[in-house]
Amino acid sequence: ECVEWEVTDGGGSEIMKWNGWGYSDSKFLFNKKGQAEFTGKRYRLSGMIIPGLKDWMEGTFGANLQHKTPATPLLTSSAVQPATLNKAFLEELKSTGIPFSHDAEDRVFRAHGHCLHEIFALREGKFGRVPDMVVWPNCHNDVVKIVELACKHNVCVIPYGGGTSVSSALECPPEETRSIVSLDTSQMNRILWIDEKNLTAHVEAGIVGQDLERLLNESGYCTGHEPDSMEFSSLGGWVATRASGMKKNIYGNIEDLVIHIRMVTPRGVIEKSCQGPRMSTGPDIHHFIMGSEGTLGVVTEVTMKIRPMPEYQKYGSVVFPNFEQGVACLREVAKQRCAPASIRLMDNEQFKFGHALKPQVSSIFTSFLDGLKTFYITKFKGFDPNRLCVATLLFEGDREKVLQHEKQVYDIAAKFGGLAAGEDNGQRGYMLTFVIAYLRDLGMDYYVIGESFETSVPWDRVLDICRNVKARIIQECKDKGVQFPPLSTCRVTQTYDTGACVYFYFAFNYRGLSDPVHVYEQVEHAAREEILANGGSLSHHHGVGKLRKEWMRDTVSNVGVGMLKSVKDYVDPDNIFGNRNLL
Amino acid sequence: DKIRALDPMLKKRDDFEDMLEERRNSSDLRYALRCYTPVLYKGLAPCKASMLKSMVLQSDQLHHVIGQVSRETGRAADDVQEEASAILEEMAHCLQLSTVRFFAFTLSKVFKTLFRSICVNEEGIQRLQQAIQEHPVVLLPSHRSYMDFLLMSYILYTYDIALPVIAAGMDFMGMKFVGEMLRMSGAFFIRRSFGGDKLYWSVFSEYVKTMLKNGFAPVEFFLEGTRSRTSKSLTPKLGLLNIVMDPYLKGEVYDINVVPVSISYERILEEALYAREMLGVPKPKESTSGLFKARKVLSEDYGSIHVYFGQPVSVRSLAQGRVNRCQFNLVPRHIPRRPSEEIQSFVNDSAYRLVRAQEENMVLKPWVLLASLLLQNHHQDQTAGQKRGMVLEELTAQAVWLRDMFREYGAFLHWPVVLLDICVGGQVKPGEPHSTVTPEEELLSQAVIVLSCASYRNQGLHVFLRPALLASAINAASSNLKQEVFNSFSFLRNMFSNEFILCPGATVQDFEEACYLLVKTGALQVTQQELLVTERGQRTVAFLTSMLDPFLQGYQVVCRFLCEEATENLTEKQFVPAVRKFIIKHLLAGRLRYTEVLSSDLQKNSLAALLRLGAVQKIKGRIKLSKVTYSSVFLLRTCVNLTYNC
């Protein structure tokens, strides 16, 4: 709702930034008056002035508008390694008529995800190993042909969907000597059929989230799968990483939504023979595919559950006196199994951050109301502005049920000292989800680097993990010589029966550091160790990629790794899908 | 860095301030009533002592254990819950500022009478203050006197630091009024032993953890478990340390700061009591009337006290790379479990490290040196059958030599600027016993003096312990070969690990440290194969060896007793009186050199060592030589004899 949908075309590097997040026309900047502003027309925040952002950036990071670190503006092709082409493969590929390119820009665009070090390097105009060519199959059969040729000529294939990975999954292994082909699925973006009797849709895996939703909406349906990256991430990518959507409480995560998967592997095509809603036929082969992170093959087509579009949506928000109470409330909501479509709890720092992103209010009346609200909460209710935190809510369904549901949730919240804080705050919270990634680019213009990472953890550990990981980040920054106090904040973004998903945001001002990315990586590494030591998982939905694979063995045991390896060895003995993720 | 770790000389220490000075110059009443606003833990959720109790009673852990006990015994859960509540009632402190103020006033008066000064390192106090804000704090003072914890609270009150809650032995509870007073000044009481009592353990550990996690107050306890009667540090007890480390290991707090505190008394209040106790005169039960009788100590001079607040030690950094905290991922954290081997060894090593940290910052007075020299001299006299003592000039000269050696070994010496003027001329020797009736009585009253003297010497033992073990090992080894010396070092070290603070498993480090120190001071040359004592090292090595001699003889005599005299039915209780009788006999016959071996502490330690080494077994409360390992006793005797032949 907050995004103006637009079909992103495959090669779309004019529409998309080549060295930052999202659309080229949308970005934060400080205008001539020194006020922050968000450009473009795509988002609710677009074209607005954000008066609080400058102070927040200066106050939080010690950043200074005078100290800029601009990115290299243009991609210089000469800085890109020349392509290593496999002539025989190329010849035969040409005869299939499948489009391909070995243009430097196309290759660089598909050589990275959105990890900090990847974007940082791009901004500096530095490129490591990049794919040697890009192919754009148009359908399942094209993929079959490409994979056959790759096997025949021993070419390495790296599938590419939306490019929103944050696990170094798209990085080309520098030690790879074979020709690397980036298989871009963006042209496989059709809904092949919709089955209204069974409420399923059969979709090509290259379709991007927002297109899928928009096209289904036209027929009155939705999947309800809305990961924060849904503007750009693809269905195939979701399957390959075990993605999770914001509204999973109603619709489920990707593993709950998928009915049938078709994947092309070096051994051939893997798929089930029917679409029964549940099967007892040995271990579910879908679970070898989901989370395989492009190491086994290319997902080409997926049958997904669809639902009629919700009649009514309502945002909401609750302010709690402190984070502890907030978590206790979320736990109770999960216990009673009455979580709304989405419920997220921000800690105090993030609440302040959200506050700083409030656009300029148009009327005196609204600003007066805001003041009154603040007064009520802090003075009248005695909430400490440095401790309070806020939960954002999204309810969906038919109107009556939504209102009933809303009341139930607010009643629980009240037991934990929560005060309803209005729809507007809630809606803004969710809108920020989409623009927050743009904000990192702004930070990077001013010596601030940062990233988010996630985990899942049992309920009894939530508070401990939040406290300890945040403290660890601060301590590590100090130990590593970071000159300014970092931003170390978290939020609980999903609730489950037995636990929750927690997101950490971490950013700091790197002035005075000679190798800021290395420092960043060390701190993130330490934070991950802390997460694991506190009973958190290696990942809730970002995946392992290459960034986190050192912990795989501890996570799934030796036998577990052996199992996965033996599957890989059977399916892809020559390591054609050689992105070296996961294992 | 390795050098820094090995070389104690490189340790930097803070300066002291006398906190009594201000007390002598301003009103005690005003001091006791002044505004007290300590800095608190940043994560503190404010709560009262009474709220603490209900938090404990409602905790998941206790809830779980109550259920378990109820199922196991068939008692109603409510009944068990009530018992838990009663245990907590008996245990809990009720810290009250008014009582603390009362103590502040009274203790000011008492301290000024008893002590010349109470010196505190104020930088340490500042570090502590910082530490308290950041993370929950555990205070670990050394334990030489009942005075210790009153003194600690007194100091913390004076410097406006959060008052600690203190784990105290139940014996105090016997002192009706005093017990309650102590409770109101922050003491909580634990039974001395509650081995199998799950419920008690659960209430106790949860109580301590709750206070710690919430940052209610610094938790204070004595790692050594009880007062050291000998002025040597005692082998650390691990129970409470396990409990206070648990919240960190389970991720319930980010970190815990542990602060070792070294309290050095110039003269310990209980000095004479301790010696008598070790010779078999039982200690009087703590009672209020006893306390009043003890007031005559007020008329004596106990010199000064030095209290050194050590560097706070982060449990997180101690555990870094040692403990895999993931081990708590698969079982709910509130279900009590035996600590894993990994954790046991971690806690054990940490405990030793912390006791060593206490030792390192113990302030040594000239008396310690003099007592060491006089005792050695006394023993030489005894062997020679003379009673000549030492000429003051000679003593002074030796003391200066020893002082330099202490310094080189990194001891924390407090050497007066003005040279001693205690005795003018004449000879100095351990005092003469008063006229007595039987030779045995004479021996015992002589022993009181020797043991008191030894307790001064013992204060400095830790400085020389490793080099002394090496020196003895060199003497005992059949050759100068490094490997042989190491073997006998390792044997001695192992044997003495109940006697001194020697961390299990650190033999190689200790050996290296000893070699380093002896080489550094020019007493030893180390070649590829051999260890050679240098010309000028002879005196050092002789001194070091004779430091350990009394202990060696003590162990030897216990072995001999067990081999020669122990009957089939020797119970643990009978052991000390029996061995004492045996020793008195031999001392009177002139077959033993060291009166010190009469110390029951030494005897108990040697028995514990023999049990640990498997030379002796305990079967149904009776002590028996193990047949299988008879050889190890033999080995022990051989070693001891070897040492003697040198």
UniProtKB/TrEMBL annotation, chain A:
MF annotations from Gene Ontology: alkylglycerone-phosphate synthase activity; FAD binding
GO biological-process terms attached to the record: ether lipid biosynthetic process
Binding sites annotated in the UniProt record for substrate: 440
Residues of the active site: 503 (proton donor/acceptor)
Keyword annotations of the record: Acetylation, FAD, Flavoprotein, Lipid biosynthesis, Lipid metabolism, Membrane, Peroxisome, Phosphoprotein, Transferase, Transit peptide
Protein's cellular compartments: Peroxisome membrane
Enzyme class name: transferase
Domain FAD-binding PCMH-type span(s) in chain numbering: 127-309
Assembly and binders: Homodimer.
Function: Catalyzes the exchange of the acyl chain in acyl-dihydroxyacetonephosphate (acyl-DHAP) for a long chain fatty alcohol, yielding the first ether linked intermediate, i.e. alkyl-dihydroxyacetonephosphate (alkyl-DHAP), in the pathway of ether lipid biosynthesis. Catalyzes the exchange of an acyl for a long-chain alkyl group and the formation of the ether bond in the biosynthesis of ether phospholipids.
Annotated protein name in UniProt: Alkylglycerone-phosphate synthase
UniProtKB/TrEMBL annotation, chain B:
Protein name per the record: Glyceronephosphate O-acyltransferase
Family affiliation: Belongs to the GPAT/DAPAT family.
GO molecular function: glycerol-3-phosphate O-acyltransferase activity; glycerone-phosphate O-acyltransferase activity
A Pfam cross-reference name: Acyltransferase
Keywords recorded for this protein, A-Z: Acyltransferase, Membrane, Transferase
Organismal lineage: Eukaryota, Metazoa, Chordata, Craniata, Vertebrata
Domain Phospholipid/glycerol acyltransferase: 137-266
SUPFAM superfamilies: Glycerol-3-phosphate (1)-acyltransferase
GO cellular component: mitochondrial membrane; peroxisomal membrane
Gene name of the encoded protein: GNPAT
GO biological process: ether lipid biosynthetic process; fatty acid metabolic process; phospholipid biosynthetic process; triglyceride biosynthetic process
